[in-house]
Design a protein that fits this description.
The chain is of the alpha/beta class. The chain is built from 18 helices and 13 strands. The strands form three sheets. It has a six-stranded mixed β-sheet, with helices on both faces. The protein has a five-stranded parallel β-sheet with strand order 2-3-4-1-5, covered by helices on one side. It starts with a helix and ends with a helix.
């Protein structure tokens, strides 16, 4: 192990030289207030891989888990040139590792996708050292998934960590009385609609500044450096188009014309935005009915705060001209944060006759659907909803709005009129059923 590499590793792991610093070192990497996440880490013989957007709390989740074990572990920041140099060969790395610490010490790789052939490297560790606790984070699924999916088949447990869901944030008010807790959750929901759910934004007294820093870090660092965007001005325009059209169909030809670039370049930039967990495209639900219209996808943002910074501003929801689209995006966020990211899917439905359903969730062959009503639904069921139920008989159909109404039944489908604050918990219960 070369001296310059050893110095970097010791600087990032001060307990190597002074074991009594372990507890203090770990505590420095944890926030003053830790809000429990719905994602549960269960290390086994596989790599525990946590992916997701920048600053969503991936590292904090692993630091918190490892701190509870009260065991020393080796932290390796793969953005360090010296660390990447050390990780060139799994065999050589393990030999140095065994000379440096107890072989049973867990390993924690930060931003693992920065290593060339990251998947093959992790595969080499798993195969050479079965049973070893391995943890890794990665911000970009583009780099990470491309290099790990095939080589880590059966060797990794993947966890997608997104910004906080409303149910996660609600845990902060769990000690309040039911009335005060509901008021607290309502206030937090309105705040999320404006500022989103990123941990640094949630806990900041200057949420707009934190959001600005996040977006600039993505555009300047990730887009320019990591993805090597050739046309940064056009890339910003595509980001702005997406923000202005949440819940609408993604028309690549129109975006290409407005941005002055080709359709292929639009497709490339949209893919980068998806791989970086900024936006998500959802495809039409196709259930084998010839009357369905299968065409362009719809676009949503992973976080309403990021979207509002780029387009729309931070006015209170009740005063916004885009409140319908914002509520729809919020419901989309709650759906993807409460279903299994690898096993479940979310789509929309649109027929050639013009019937539409906002979201269709598929879980292991079971169907649920969701319609968003920013105003008062008044317990009414639209013709579009009836058409979808008659065609596909989903187990549940959620009518999501600001008020509760009595549940209804159409054939074998239960229709629940629920409030926005209830969706996450009810959907999670359905998935676990």
């Amino acid at each position: 192990m070369q001296d310059h590499i050893l110095r970097v590793v010791q600087a990032d792991n001060p307990w190597l030289l002074k074991p009594d610093l372990l507890k203090e070192w770990v505590s420095r990497h944890l926030p003053a207030e830790f809000i429990p996440r719905g994602t549960v880490l269960q290390p086994d013989e596989r790599v525990c891989l946590v992916i997701g957007p920048r600053q969503a709390g991936k590292s904090t989740l692993i630091w918190k888990f490892l701190s509870a074990t009260q065991r020393p572990f080796l932290f390796l920041n793969c953005e360090e040139t010296a660390v990447r140099e050390w990780l060139a060969s799994p065999a050589v790395f393990l030999q140095d590792f065994h000379n440096l610490v107890d072989p049973a010490v867990p390993l924690f790789f930060e931003e693992i996708q920065r290593i060339p052939e990251a998947g093959l490297f992790l595969k080499g560790l798993v195969d050479r050292k079965p049973g070893m606790w391995l943890f890794a984070t990665g911000s970009s699924s583009f780099d990470l998934e491309a290099e790990t999916r095939e080589s880590l088949a059966g060797r990794a447990s993947r966890h997608l960590l997104l910004p906080f869901s409303l149910s996660e944030i609600s845990k902060r008010g769990s000690e309040k009385s039911p009335i005060l807790q509901e008021q607290y959750i309502g206030n937090e929901m309105e705040r999320m609609l404006c500022y989103g759910g990123y941990p640094t934004v949630l806990l900041s007294k200057q949420p707009e500044k934190e959001l600005s820093d996040l977006v600039e870090a993505f555009i300047i660092r990730d887009a320019s450096d990591r993805f090597q965007i050739r046309l940064p001005a056009a890339f910003r325009k595509i980001l702005e188009f997406a923000a202005s059209q949440i819940g609408n169909l993604c028309n690549y030809s129109e975006w290409a014309s407005l941005a002055g670039i080709s359709n292929d370049t639009v497709s490339e930039y949209v893919q980068i935005l998806q791989d970086s967990h900024i936006i998500r495209l959802i495809r039409p639900f196709v259930g084998g009915k010839r009357a369905e219209l299968t065409s362009m996808p719809k676009v949503y943002f992973i976080d309403t705060g990021i979207r509002n910074l780029i387009f729309g501003g931070f006015q209170p929801v009740i005063k916004r001209p885009d409140q319908g689209a914002l509520w729809e995006n919020f419901v989309f966020e709650e759906i993807i944060k409460n279903i299994h990211p690898m096993l479940d899917s979310v789509r929309f439905w649109r027929s050639k006759a013009g019937a539409e359903v906002d979201f269709v969730v598929e879980h292991q062959g079971r169907l649920a659907a969701c319609e968003v009503k920013a105003g008062d639904a008044r317990g009414k069921i639209s013709r579009s909803v009836r058409n979808f139920i008659e065609a596909y008989t989903p187990e549940l159909f959620f009518m999501v709005g600001n008020k509760n109404y009595s549940n209804q039944q159409i054939e074998n489908t239960e229709i629940r009129f629920i409030r926005f604050i209830e969706l996450g918990g009810l959907l999670r219960d359905w998935v676990r059923k």
